[in-house]
Predict the structure.
Amino acid sequence: MVLKDCSRCMVYTPTGQRLSEARVVHAKDSVTLFFSDYKFQDSRFQSRVDFYDDQCGLIVAKCEVTIRRNPAYLETGEPWAADCRILDVKNVVQRQRDIRAKVYLEVEFELSNGRHFYGTIRNLSAGGLYITTVQPLKRGDVISFSYCFRTLERRFNVVILWAKRAEGGRYGYGCKFLRLTDGAEAAIRSFVYKRLLDKRKGIT
């Protein structure tokens, strides 16, 4: 099975246009998609599906999708379902190093000497983040912060790789995560995937 821990995907039309986001349920030999949209009809086609897998990363695959009415619609609120057969994996972006989301998260950071300051996370991936703040820092400084990216608040450590002047007299810092656990990395991936999907649906 290609998928390891996937709960969401983006389905495209055969001509390459975005069709809809779907909830994913997968077992050993099957993948089922569930749609909250009402615009579908019974159909079968081959197209691209982007799977957002918390363990594997972004999986871009060619799939055969067979859409049908969902018999459990009254229980799930999803009127359409689809059997999805993965025909070919086109690309896998592991650890989400190249998948970023623009964000605006106000966070309290802590320096290694115990001093606290506030900054704004502007860009986020499982590899690192970009922050702006009035706090002067230097390359190699290690800072930490706590945040709930999924269901559990965790403590994160990052090291500053580069710095630049930002707007309004602030500083901008590119940072790399240090010693991420599998659970922490999966939480960041899930957060980034949701932001990207929301952006594609026009949700700010």
Q: What stands out?
A: The two ends are 34 Å apart (CA to CA). Residues 6-94 form a domain with the Thrombin, subunit H fold (CATH 2.40.10).
